[in-house]
Write a structure and sequence with these properties.
311 residues; mainly beta; four-stranded antiparallel β-sheet; 27 strands; globular
Length: 311
């Protein structure tokens, strides 16, 4: 069955005034958190307002939650040319810590998006070692994926990537998927024993143009990704103000398109929550608000959501 598109005007704006809310994560207790450049993480309150939690520092980017309810933060250092470590914040205790600042002898400068599997492995991308945005998206293949295992060991498991960005796990955790922003595509990696990765291959087609003067709606820069419960991989295309889905049979369907950016502006990540996993949150790199709506299909639960459901 084709996905039913979501009308942009059905989305509501919440957390108005937040600073670059790249990503959203929702705890098993229903508490909603978003990345915010003015703190470790911002909590989105039921009335749509927000409160900042934890110390300010760096540029919190993609976030996720482990099975214990702690928020794992990818800190994207390219904005201020500083470090870009993998961090963790505990909303219950207020503890804020750096989990990893380098791996395999390489300094983390642009940790981007973390995803956590059932075994507790944290998979994350380091997008680039470029110092500026024009350099970061010039097609260089200096990005890599790394893993931090529960025993504290860390390793680069894929490299030579073109600005690796959002990531997602297949429902059976046999594959790790990663968007290549300056490849305008998504790669799929088999997960091997010992939390390692096999060779990557393109999943689905190239999703648009990489030309800077291309028409906005044709631009293919990929950002955050996420699976729904039917196996469709949703992909955010921020420059096109569009969210598309790669279906299990390889077709591409447009789920949301807001050319004017009035209701969804430069979307970067999608998150599902709620009792039926159909509450949809969409992060942004440009808007000072988060878009919230209803999804036509439930999301695939993350590890913290599976833990709450006893799955």
């Amino acid at each position: 069955m084709p996905l039913q598109p979501i009308a942009p005007q059905s989305l509501q704006k919440i957390a108005v005034g937040i600073d670059r809310p790249e990503d959203v994560v929702v705890g098993p207790d229903g508490r909603v958190f978003a990345s915010d450049h003015q703190c470790a993480v911002a909590e989105i309150l039921p009335d749509g307002s927000f409160r900042r939690m934890g110390p300010k520092g760096g540029a919190p980017n993609g976030i996720n939650m482990d099975a214990r309810g702690r928020i794992v933060i990818a800190n994207f250092g390219i904005y201020d040319r500083k470090e870009g470590p993998l961090q963790r914040f505990d909303p219950a205790s207020g503890e804020h810590e750096t989990l990893l600042a380098e791996v395999g002898g390489k300094r983390l400068t642009s940790a981007n998006y973390p995803v956590i599997d059932r075994a507790g492995n944290i998979w994350c991308a380091n997008s680039t070692h470029a110092e500026t945005w024009p350099q970061a998206l010039d097609g260089r293949a200096d990005g890599f994926i790394f893993v931090l295992r529960p025993d504290g060991s860390a390793e680069i498991v894929a490299e030579g990537l073109k600005f690796p960005n959002g990531m997602a796990l297949s429902a059976d955790e046999r594959f790790l998927f990663c968007a290549q922003t300056s490849g305008a595509d998504v790669l799929r990696f088999p997960i091997l024993p010992g939390a390692k990765l096999g060779a990557g291959e393109r999943y689905g087609p190239v999703l648009g143009s990489l030309e800077r003067d291309a028409a906005p709606e044709t631009t293919g820069w990929t950002d955050g990704i996420g699976f729904d419960a039917e196996g469709n991989l949703w992909v955010c295309l921020p420059a096109a103000n569009k969210v598309v889905a790669i279906t299990p049979d390889g077709r591409v369907e447009t789920v949301i398109h807001d050319p004017a950016g009035e209701h969804m502006n430069h979307p970067t990540n999608v998150t599902w929550s709620g009792p039926d996993l159909k509450d949809l949150y969409i992060g942004s790199i440009r808007a000072d608000w988060i878009a919230k709506g209803r999804s036509p299909v439930a999301g695939q639960p993350h590890v913290h959501q599976r833990a709450a459901a006893g799955a």
